[in-house]
């Protein structure tokens, strides 16, 4: 149980590290784009090879399809809402002072972190193998997210202390969400666990398609396609070891 909380917190720890990087350093956008592209590949591979593949045979196809599309649809509705509030750039590291809303980015990131952490908690249930690739993917993808928000929060005149407290709170919430995912679903039917994984896979793939990959290509150019593919094949290799 406590392992679920620990790994949920570790996966989100890069949010805190990204915030520190945004405060202390100037990181070239191209480097950030490459990190984002690699994280996109890992998330895509993990959602496909881990979450969806493990659902196959453990839940019926119609239910898997419904939950996957429901996850994608709910994320899309959420994305439309948070974009109108100024959080459309939460996966980006844009330093344009006329194009930011640090607090909205923070709220959007918090809402992303909760379902991600619940999935991590679920991965510790029953006989399922721990989703190591998924944890690594979330860790990598979170870095530019916090980097972006910290830049925006600095432009909004937030103090360094307040910025770090905000991101530290996301790490705590992520750890608790992972623990709750484990606790509340440990007695649920096995098919329910896999269906929630399919739901998460739909939301994650919708997220990387609409936020991370477009930004990575915009800042990194065509080479990000190869870097993203590298993340996908590494995800496939790791899940088959």
TrEMBL record:
Q: How does it sit in the membrane?
A: Multi-pass membrane protein
Location, primary (coarse class)? membrane
Q: Does the keyword tRNA processing apply?
A: no
- Lineage, top-rank taxon, reads Bacteria
Q: Which UniProt keywords apply?
A: Cell membrane, Membrane, Transmembrane, Transmembrane helix, Zinc
Q: Where are the transmembrane segments?
A: 6-24, 31-49, 61-82, 103-124, 130-151, 163-182, 194-213, 220-238
Q: Iron as a keyword?
A: no
In terms of PANTHER family, this protein maps to: ZINC TRANSPORTER ZIP11, ZINC/IRON TRANSPORTER
- Protein family per UniProt: Belongs to the ZIP transporter (TC 2.A.5) family.
Q: What is this protein called?
A: ZIP family metal transporter
The source organism is: Rossellomorea oryzaecorticis
Taxon lineage: Bacteria, Bacillati, Bacillota, Bacilli, Bacillales
């Amino acid at each position: 149980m406590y392992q679920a909380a620990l790994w949920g917190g570790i996966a989100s720890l890069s949010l805190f590290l990204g915030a520190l990087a945004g405060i202390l350093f100037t990181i070239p956008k191209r480097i950030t784009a490459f990190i984002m592209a690699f994280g996109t590949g890992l998330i895509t591979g993990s959602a496909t090879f881990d979450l969806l593949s493990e659902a196959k045979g453990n839940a019926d196809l119609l239910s898997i399809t419904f939950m996957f599309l429901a996850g994608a649809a709910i994320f899309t509705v959420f994305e439309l809402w948070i974009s109108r509030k100024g959080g459309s750039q939460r996966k980006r590291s844009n330093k344009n002072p006329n194009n930011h809303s640090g607090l909205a980015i923070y709220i959007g990131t918090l809402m992303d972190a909760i379902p991600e952490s619940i999935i991590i908690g679920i991965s510790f249930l029953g006989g399922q193998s721990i989703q190591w690739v998924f944890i690594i993917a979330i860790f990598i993808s979170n870095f530019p997210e916090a980097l972006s928000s910290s830049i925006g929060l600095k432009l909004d005149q937030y103090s360094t202390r307040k910025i770090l407290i905000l991101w530290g709170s996301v790490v705590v919430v992520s750890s608790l969400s992972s623990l709750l995912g484990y606790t509340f679903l440990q007695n649920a039917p096995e098919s329910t666990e896999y269906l929630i994984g399919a739901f998460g896979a739909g939301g994650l793939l919708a997220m990387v398609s609409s936020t991370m990959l477009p930004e990575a290509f915009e800042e990194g150019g065509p080479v990000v396609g190869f870097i993203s593919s590298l993340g996908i094949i590494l995800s496939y290799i790791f899940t088959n070891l």
